[in-house]
Request: fold
Amino acid sequence: MKKSVVLFKQYYELRTAAIQKLKSSPDANSNPYPHKYHVEISLTNYIEKFKDVPNGHVDESVTTSVAGRIHSKRSAGKKLVFYDLRGEMVKIQIMANEKFYVDGEEFEKDVDILHRGDVVGVRGHPGRTKMGELSIVPNKITLLSPCLHMLPHLHFGVKDKETRFRQRYLDLIINESVRDVFITRSKIISYMRTFLDNMGFLEVETPLMNMIAGGATAKPFVTHHNDLHMNLFMRVAPELYLKMLVVGGFDRVYEIGRQFRNESIDMTHNPEFTTCEFYMAYADYEDLMKMTEQLLFGMVQSLFGRPVVPYNPEGEGGEEKLVDFTPPFKRVHIIHDLEKILGVTLPDATTFHTEETRKFLDGVCVQHGVDCSAPRTTARLLDKLVGEYLEPTFINPTFLVGHPHVMSPLAKWSEVLLFPAMRPEEGIGAFGTGAGDAK
Reply:
């Protein structure tokens, strides 16, 4: 057994024993899990309200209470201990000085029981150290929820992916960038909802369990309804129900919800994921592309205050790229641009349903070493060529247009060409982010 594992185990055993002793104490104030603690001000508001406290000053005329998690502990002698208190993505310092505490014996007992990772409530005075660190000088620190395990240090963080994804709570406690992802995702969904609402769309909820797995070509998850004695499919898309609403007279509807597809997992696919799907009567794919440009440009401006944001497709240490969301977005035509890159003339769009075209595209994939698993249909072969030669060039938002009808048989035919379908796809940073069609 590794030395660190033994250390963590010993820490847990000692900490558990100490907390159990507190729980067994006849003193009601020793309960390590109190029923309620009154928080008078959030950490964010505390920082804003007391930002003007001068250096080296403690305002004893003001007493308030805050709460958060202890992330570090530093002793400057028996009568002065500093803690870092974090919460709400911000930090303040606890400057525990025995002189301001309710009682010297109480001070010693509380300081001894508090450890890194504990959630505590602090009641005291706003102050600032001589070095300029905004602090709260406590009259009393109350243990609200002890951390029984040794908390990793913020400086080193949690690097092991297995630990991070199996213990998400630990990942969120230690790695601030992970919390940023959760917050940004929430803001994105909120912005999309507001954008569509302002355009007159009605948000709806459609069934997650269906008797048929319709709306997309995907393998569904199967569940069983005990009361009805029948198997049902978890939905792979909300499409069919949303179209029923349009037929029923709701001209603009949308749904933001979970989809379930019992398929492979990779960088861009997960069996359980969230989509925003909307339907709009009396509009075509040109209207959809304009809407997408307005939506993404406004969203990025709202989130970052600028239309150009950095993006690192290779993760930490990789080359950083700048993504510009300023409209109009670039448009790439599947047929024309593939012909330019491959140096071949593809068959006429009206023949894409034939075996001759399938064989031609099969030969192109073999010649260029593009792998395509069975079934090697025209649509799949063409999609693999797009993924190999066109999508990697999408750094700024790009519309992929001109899909042959075999790739999107339910879309309307284009008014310009007979067989290319009115179905734009949109990609950013070499990843697809959305698709739409006029039906």
Observations:
- The first strand starts at residue 57 and ends at 58.
- Residues 176-198 form the longest helix (23 residues).
- The CA atoms of residues 195 and 375 lie 40 Å apart.
- Confidence is low (pLDDT under 50) at residues 416-421.
